[in-house]
Amino acid sequence: MDLGLRGKKAIVCASSRGLGRACASALAEAGVAVTINGRDRHKLDETAAEIVRATGAHVTAVAADVSTREGQDRLLAACPQPDILVNNNGGPPFRDFRAVDRDALFAGVVMNMATPIELVQRTVHGMIERGFGRIVNITAIAVKLPVPGYELSSGARGGLTAFLAGVARTVAPHGVTINNIMPGYFETDRVRKVFEATAKAGGRPTDEVVAECAACAFLCSRQAGYITGQNLLIDGGRYASAF
Ligand SMILES: NC(=O)c1ccc[n+]([C@@H]2O[C@H](COP(=O)([O-])OP(=O)(O)OC[C@H]3O[C@@H](n4cnc5c(N)ncnc54)[C@H](OP(=O)(O)O)[C@@H]3O)[C@@H](O)[C@H]2O)c1
User: Fold this and answer.
1) CA-to-CA distance for 80 and 75, rounded, in angstroms?
2) Does the beta carbon of 208 sit less than 6 angstroms from any atom of ligand 1?
3) Which atom of ligand 1 is closest in space to residue 92's alpha carbon?
4) Could you tell me the CATH number of the domain that includes residue 124?
5) Sign of the Cα pseudo-torsion (139, 169, 130, 54, in order)
């Protein structure tokens, strides 16, 4: 399916591995020039080379901490007028809520709420001016389904979701959509570590990452222009509810 994105430019935050990388690859396949990001320069360059090899797309690699102002400045210097922004980042560590002190609390809120909001603030104006923009935030199933030990993830990402729900309606008339993808359990490095840490067996096949990245690319497509302010749960039916 032609997503109508050929020639567009995207910033995909935290994309040297895992879900971010999958989203960047799917957009590159759709003909988007992608700016990818991670803190580990070596891994990032490796990923950039692999995406170029697989898709032939234009890939720029920005090694930076996206949670910092300086990191965001560098991403925006590399791609000053993105048509697409995929907000992704690390997530808070598994921790009993009583042990989440003030510093950890603020760090989680900066990582999973303030950082994506700041990037939306810094990119949405240009999207509005150009009459086209796609913003996808990778949040978590924890927004809907509380997971003990991940209260900070639920709280910060729930805050992000609520904050942007109104913004999405404000920018929609200008051709800009904002949606959230809530992954369930995808077998990435992060989840493998969680499973190891909690000594639980399981996880979903790596193939499911394909479902997540395809959803991200579709939400960025021209055809998805009438979908905004939505939260798309991709968890293989794990969260059981009628609505
Ligand atoms: N996988 C799942 O099933 C699942 C479920 C629910 C929610 N999520 C959420 O989805 C997000 C991605 O998860 P994942 O499983 O794909 O994780 P992952 O496999 O550990 O990959 C994380 C990626 O983010 C980069 N990164 C982390 N912190 C960064 C920072 N401060 N600045 C720039 N890049 C950064 C990492 O590169 P460097 O380490 O080199 O910086 C890496 O490329 C997380 O927020 C996670 O909580 C995932």
Assistant:
1) 8
2) no
3) 47
4) 3.40.50.720
5) positive
Name the one residue in this structure whose structure tokens are 């935290």.
Answer: 14
Nearest to 83 by CA among 225, 231, 234: 225
Task: Note whether residue 233 is domain-resident.
Answer: no
Q: Is 40 in the pocket of ligand 1 (CB under 6 A)?
A: yes
Ligand 1 atom at minimum distance from 191 CA = 1
Please check whether residue 99 lies inside any domain of the structure.
yes
Q: What is the DSSP string of 83-99?
A: SEEEE----PPP--GGG
Instruction: Encode burial over 50-87: b for 16+ CB neighbours within 10 A, e otherwise.
Output: ebeeebebebebbbbbbbeeebbebbbebbeebbbbbb
Distance CA 153, CA 91 (A): 7
Q: What would the pLDDT profile of 93-115 be if each residue is shown by its tens digit?
A: 999 999 999 999 999 999 999 99
Range of the domain at 24: 9-226
pTM of the model: 0.93
Q: How many domains does the chain have?
A: 1
Q: Quick: pLDDT tens for 43-69.
A: 999 999 999 999 999 999 999 999 999
Whose C-alpha lies nearest to ligand 1, atom 20? 190
Q: Is residue 232 part of a domain?
A: no
User: Of all atoms in ligand 1, which is nearest to the CA of residue 40?
Assistant: 40
- pLDDT tens digit string along 218-242? 999 999 999 999 999 998 888 888 8
